[in-house]
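Write out a record, fold above all:
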Amino acid sequence: MDLYLNPNPADDTTLEFNQTELDRVYEDVRHYIVGVPMDPVAAGFILGSTRVHDVIALHSSVVTALPDEVRYANGVVAGVDKVGQINGDVTILYAKRMGSPLPPIGFADLSPNENECEKVVTLFPYKAGTAIFKGHIVLKDSTSMTSGVDAVVLQASVGTFAFSCPYAAAYSTKNMYELLETQALTVGAAVFNLQGRVVGVLSACGMTYDVKLANKTGYLSDLFLRLQNNQVDVNWLKFLLGSYLKISSAKSSWVSNSEASYVELDPCDI
């Protein structure tokens, strides 16, 4: 049955969140959230666990140096053995597993029902804990075009959706530094539906307090499995082999494929 929104938001119960449901989602997924020390702490999430590592996905735009450690949701700090870059603006980290292995994280598509105001939550590291922000899908397809007669599609907007996440620095259009700071704190955060499945990865902040953009995660749905089966082209930038071997030097911006060195080593755990 189609779900239509009440034109009077004050009377519309379809927009409400059930606290018990929020608590359940938080407890189900918070163990997958990790913080990666950058400037400031970057948000990442665990794709799944191997025998010795947790495989963590991080948005490449926030990576300004080769990470040496991550902080898990329980406060435990673990070393990073391997860092690699793959297509789709994703950086993967192999961090030493410090607890029981986690099953692969679940992914899902957005609801195809255009009349449904889908509820989502966003989790990311905040101070010594993990923050959760509730919101709604605002626009299921945020593909945009340039203005003018010769308008073209903005490639960065392809495969994105807009949603509400009421967290931001007190920035304005006149203070781009605070906007960039907000993006650094939130970009890479996983966006979950209320079934605890990832529907997107936060990729940009809008110029309003709560609107954010996220990449749809269809291309990530089987990434962990393909990594385990050596079916992913990975540009390894750091690999542990007896001691830390930094394949590329840390830079103020992320290393491009043409600048990075490659190593012929088996990336899988044995």
In short: DSSP finds three helices and 14 strands in the chain. The chain has two domains: 32-104+222-246, 119-218.
